[in-house]
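Re: that chain you flagged

S.,

Sorry for the slow reply, it's been a week of failed gels. I finally had a moment to sit down with the sequence you sent. For the record, here it is as I used it:
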Amino acid sequence: MTTQISKRNGTRTSPQADNSFKNKDVALQQYIDTNGHFSLVRNFRLADLVTMMNGFCGSFSIFSSGRYLLTQDETYLWLAFAFPMVGLVFDFFDGKVARWRNSASMLGQELDSFADLISFGIAPALLAFDVGLRTLMDTIILTGFICCGLARLARFNATVALVPKDDSGKARYFEGLPIPTTLMLVSVLCVWTRWGWIEGKGGLPGGVIRLWGDEGGSGELHPVVLTFGCWAAAMVSKTLRVPKP
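Prediction finished late last night. Pasting the structure tokens below so you have them in one place:
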């Protein structure tokens, strides 16, 4: 395959990538050409609305987590657990709806990534905070977990056009763990909550270790938070390739 040099950054791009960029420009032009009130909403496809419901579920989970921290009412904690799971259903169906309606859009791709970050990045991290991962070291690792999810989604959007495709046009694999897999961590937190292994009850499995300083200080760490750190590394890994179903 022949290649050419991009004038903007000096990197090599293939004709396939150039065509992808041109098609993207054409697809985005509708958002510029549409005038009048609610022009953005009028350009929504049905699949975009399904994706928005994913974002709604993630946002509601975050607010439920906050309500739990304020009231210690476990009803809110269980709501916070449930809504990312519901968001996964919407995340599964938005692509199918787009193909059914033959109405995929560039906006939909961006919406999908933002919704996934809320439901499968921010919401799980806050749930981990809810159940007891609250030390300074814990929160630093959880923040890195969110940032790795963000980076993974950005990389996907930037490179998806260049990933090898199958006969149906779908990418053959994911680079790094897909961010919805973080719901496996949420499921573990659900089990711990059911068994009372959370802050304020039996305490988290593995307890807490002090790396430096005094008890209750900034040097404490819950070993189980390292699972979130490893998951974060797996999401941004380039060598880990997960076949698409």
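What I noticed first: The CA atoms of residues 5 and 11 lie 6 Å apart.

Talk soon,
D.
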